[in-house]
Amino acid sequence: MKTPKPKFIFSAGGTGGHIYPALATADALRDMLPEAEILFIGAEHRMEMEKVPHHGYPIIGLPIQGIQRRLTLKNFVVPFKIVASLLKARKILKQLKPDVVAGFGGYASGPVLRKAAKMGIPTLLQEQNSFPGLTNRILSKKANSICVAYPGMDQFFSAEKITLTGNPIRSEIFSNSISQEDGRKFFGLETQKTTILAIGGSLGARTINESVCAIIPDIISKDYQIIWQTGKNYSYNLCNHFDAAKNKNIFVQEFIYEMPQAYAAADVIISRAGAIAVSEIAAIAKPVIFIPSPNVTDDHQTKNAMVFVNHNAALLVKDNVARESLGKTLFALIDDKNARGEMCENLKKLAMPDAAKSIAKKIIELREKKLNGR
What gap in Å lies between CA 49 and CA 45, rounded to an integer? Predict the structure, then answer.
């Protein structure tokens, strides 16, 4: 009897931190099973509806939305949208009959994994953070397998379900063959000058931007260079310490698509501590100062960063003191070559660049167990 064609559903969305790990895993799975049919399920009108098709995978949107933290009429329709999403998820699952459903976070993962588990379809959960959110803690009870990025997650999940895989990151990041010289040339910078990379996510981080703005005069006076991603919600024109068009030591842009070049160019990185940013920085092993966002559930960015701080692989500056403290911490790190070298070595020990392949193997393993009736 011929083995049926492999079919999988991936659910991810809301932010790049959920979408890109799912896409990296889908690519790894397709490399292992070229004949596999992979469908994504996301939330209507969210960024996954654009990013996933652009990457070459089909996606269906659910009408799901989250509860707003402020009082708004939009919250009254949430229960109805949850019911509609559960019904639509069930319909999709019945039509496709996937071998395995994998959830990577985002609004749509809840109804999709919940329905899949009820229908007896094997499910895999990928948790990116060192402190899981409430939804994943609930979904984990019915999941067959849970892939995590940090050790010690058995305090949240059943130990027998856990596999430590790391977070899937884009292959172009960890297979980066761009030299530091070429990275700097790409951004029009000098090849021999100490270079700082400041990133705060695609939307930007006000604290990082205001802190960077405050130290621009020192960066210029010390003859350092900076690659600065401000995010679309912050204009560098608000920083009146420099003229971007005239100062050759500063490359500033709302969004940097060419992250392999930016990482290659950097001597030191300033970043938020989202799960994927942390995993990418570990993979490229560059000295880093994390400024965790305080505006996230359960303060999980601080918990992510502390895993690295506790292994002497990163420094942490709290958001509420960053405007006053970043410069002192940054310039001390640049001056301490031994500390930077130790940090790089410790980052390499924590990096897990094969995460996407490891998770894809777990998905295949769940499919094989299903086919064998186990």
Answer: 7
Beta bridge partners of 123: 101
Please give the model's pTM, rounded to 2 decimal places.
Answer: 0.83
State the chain's mean pLDDT as an integer: 89
Split at pLDDT 50, 70, 90, the class of 73 is: low
Is the distance from CB of 208 to CB of 272 less than 8 angstroms? yes
The answer on 180 and 147 residing in a single domain is no
Sequence-distant (≥ 6) Cβ neighbours of residue 175 within 8 angstroms? none
SS3 243: coil
pLDDT attached to residue 317: 96
Q: Whole-angstrom Cα distance, residue 307 to residue 282? A: 11
119: left (phi over 0), alpha (psi -120 to 50) or beta: alpha
Q: Which residues contact 202 (CB under 8 A, 6 or more apart)?
A: 16, 231, 232, 255
What gap in Å lies between CA 148 and CA 140, rounded to an integer?
Answer: 12
CATH of the domain at 227: 3.40.50.2000
**2, part of any domain:** no
The answer on 261 and 346 residing in a single domain is: yes
Return all residues near 64 (Cβ < 8 A) that are at least 6 apart: 43, 44, 81, 82, 85, 107, 108, 110, 111
DSSP-assigned states of every residue in 88-130? HHHHHHHHH--SEEEE-SSTTHHHHHHHHHHTT--EEEEE-SS
Query: Is residue 211 classed as helix, strand or coil in its secondary structure?
Result: helix
Burial class (CB in 10 A: 0-12, 13-18, 19+), 248: exposed
User: In degrees, to the nearest 5, what angle opens at C-alpha 166 toward C-alphas 49 and 64?
Assistant: 30
Cβ atoms 344, 312 nearer than 8 A: no
What mean pLDDT do residues 264-273 have? Answer: 96
Indicate the number of domains in the chain.
2
Range of the domain at 254: 172-350
Most confident of 133-137, 202-206, 225-229: 225-229
pLDDT at position 77 is 65
Is 87 within a domain?
A: yes
Q: Is 137 helix (H, G, I), strand (E, B) or coil?
A: helix
